[in-house]
Write a structure and sequence with these properties.
- By secondary structure, this protein is mainly alpha-helical.
- The chain has helices spanning 2-22, 28-32, 34-37, 40-45, 49-62, 65-70, 72-85, 99-115, 118-124, 126-155, 171-191, 194-198, 201-210, 229-232, 256-260, 337-343, 349-353, 386-390, 401-405, 420-424, 430-434, 468-472; strands spanning 215-219, 239-240, 245-246, 266-270, 359-361, 371-373, 407-414, 440-444, 454-458, 481-491.
- The protein has a two-stranded antiparallel ribbon. Strands 2-3 form a two-stranded antiparallel sheet. The protein has a two-stranded antiparallel sheet with strand order 5-6.
- A hairpin with a 4-residue loop joins strand 2 (239-240) and strand 3 (245-246).
- The chain starts with a helix and ends with a strand.
Length: 492
């Protein structure tokens, strides 16, 4: 029963958080956004004391069920291991704890968090790794399937599905996601929870508390026949059947050992392992205690589809190239590049949720895989604050639409040599027409010649850096106007 409860809850959590990362409509974030916020590292970086305390208390009572139920990367390893288990049963062996690897990695991980080296933190964080794998490897497949359904629906004049653009947002992040997936898949295929119990810093941290959990896996040595089935089915490699011991720091309370034991020698309960006692009387049969967890209450939701947005019938601007920005642009709500670098786990949830295709993973060394903004495919619409609503780590603080519309993340810069009125001598004014804050006005290129072409002038005090001017500028491949980011955001 313990194993069945664990599998049911883990499958539910895993499916829902995967759908949250795959969501293209934005609807699921209203209902499932909490699932990202209860992940351990995002809660730590967001200083969410309630979640942190709750996870530690749960570990002190039940053991490391966070790793086997809540963490999507842990559940993914179980799925891969289960697939291999269909071909090769009873394949695990006991191995001693790799202290020389676990604890130094945890120390370095904590030091990286304190120092604000977000790129290193993101490489090891389990939730972030899973987010990158889903968004970069699986979401393009999901979107392609959606587009096939959208094409079919069009033939029946149905709008149940709508086309979405599928493109590679960052090649380095894609490569890192692929390498991470391959490494974790190989480790899970061969050794079950090897990654969790040797590399994962969250698992190592929780292991300090799981040693003292009230409920643990215990041996009844009188019933044990030393058949070794418990050890051979322990994916955490933490059961030594010869000495009748369980390394509770590595045990993820999966229940596989209890189900594998044919003699009832293992139980999940409070207390200590039962030692054999010499007695003439038959010992009373020990009772099994199992974890009885309340089923997670979830609300079934339909994926409401948004209407496709167009900009006044303008032709699609293709093959735009990003300019060389002196300062990268971070999303509204991040407040500063330093805050983003310190708190972001690079889970890609905001990148996945951005409906305007503005966010993409950074390629900078210190900010690798963290979100940055660029306007080749869209611009940051003042009426959208989705990224600030989905961030679980506090890297992008929640903003109201009013706050979003008055937050200056950068300012526009005009490049004379690229401007069509200058190069071709024709009227344009696209940047002025689409500026939502009225920060751009058209003035004669030559103030002394009323017949000279009109070119944009920018009022930096009004510009919020949304990128509408850059995105909708007809100059190709480089826009005649682009946004330069600000290290510190300010409220206008």
């Amino acid at each position: 029963m313990l194993r069945k409860i664990r599998i049911t809850l883990a499958a539910l959590m895993f499916i829902l958080i995967t759908l949250l990362l795959l969501d293209i409509s934005g609807t699921l974030h209203h209902y499932l956004g909490w699932m990202a916020k209860i992940q351990f590292l995002p809660a730590v970086l967001a200083v969410n004391a309630g979640v942190i305390i709750a996870l530690i208390v749960i570990t002190l009572i039940f053991g490391r069920i966070y790793c086997s139920v809540i963490c999507p990367l842990g559940v993914m390893q179980d799925v891969i291991s289960w697939i291999h288990g269909k071909r090769k049963k009873n394949r695990f062996t006991y191995s001693a704890e790799k202290k020389w690897l676990r604890y130094p990695l945890l120390v370095v991980f904590i030091a990286a968090i304190v120092a604000g080296i977000g790129s290193f933190v993101a490489l090891l964080a389990p939730y972030s790794s899973y987010g990158r794998i889903v968004v970069n490897l699986f979401k393009p497949i999901y979107e392609a399937g959606n587009n096939v359904l959208a094409s079919i629906a069009e033939h029946f004049n149905s709008y149940a599905f709508y086309h979405v653009d599928t493109w590679i947002k960052s090649m380095p992040t894609l490569i890192i996601a692929a390498i991470t997936f391959v490494i974790i898949a190989i480790l899970a295929w061969r050794g079950g929870r090897t990654y969790c119990n040797t590399i994962c810093p969250v698992g190592t941290f929780l292991s300090f508390f799981s040693r003292f959990s009230l409920l643990k896996i215990h041996f009844d040595e009188e019933k044990c026949k030393n058949c070794s089935l418990c050890t051979k089915n322990c994916k955490a490699s933490c059961i030594d059947y010869k000495n009748h011991t369980v390394d509770h720091s590595r045990c993820v309370t999966c229940g596989n050992c209890i189900e594998a034991c044919k003699f009832g020698a293992l139980s999940y309960r409070y207390g200590r392992s039962v030692k054999p006692v010499k007695s003439e009387n038959e010992p009373d049969p020990s009772r099994r205690s199992f974890l009885i967890g309340a089923a997670l209450a979830t609300t079934a939701t339909a994926l409401a589809q948004e209407k496709k947005k167009v900009d006044g019938g303008l032709a699609t601007i293709e093959e735009k190239k990003a300019p060389q920005r002196t300062t990268a642009i971070t999303p509204p709500g991040s407040f500063s590049a330093k805050n983003m670098q310190k708190h972001c786990t690079a889970c890609q949830l905001c990148v996945s949720a951005c409906p305007n295709q503005v966010l993409r993973p950074s390629t900078g060394l210190l900010t690798l895989m963290q979100p940055t903004m660029s306007y080749e495919r869209g611009y940051c619409r003042p009426e959208c604050n989705r990224c600030s609503q989905v961030c679980p780590a506090g890297a992008i603080k929640p903003l109201t639409l009013e706050e979003k519309s008055s937050t200056q993340i950068g300012h526009a810069v005009w490049i004379k040599k690229n401007c069509i009125p200058v190069t071709d001598g024709v009227e344009c004014g696209n940047c002025e027409r689409h500026c939502p804050t009225g920060a751009i006005e058209m003035e004669p290129l030559d103030p002394d010649d009323e017949m000279s072409v009109m070119v944009p002038t920018i009022n930096e005090a009004k510009c919020i850096g949304c990128g509408a001017c850059e995105n909708l500028c007809p100059a190709n491949p480089f826009s005649a106007i682009y946004v330069e980011g600000h290290e510190m955001h300010k409220l206008l």
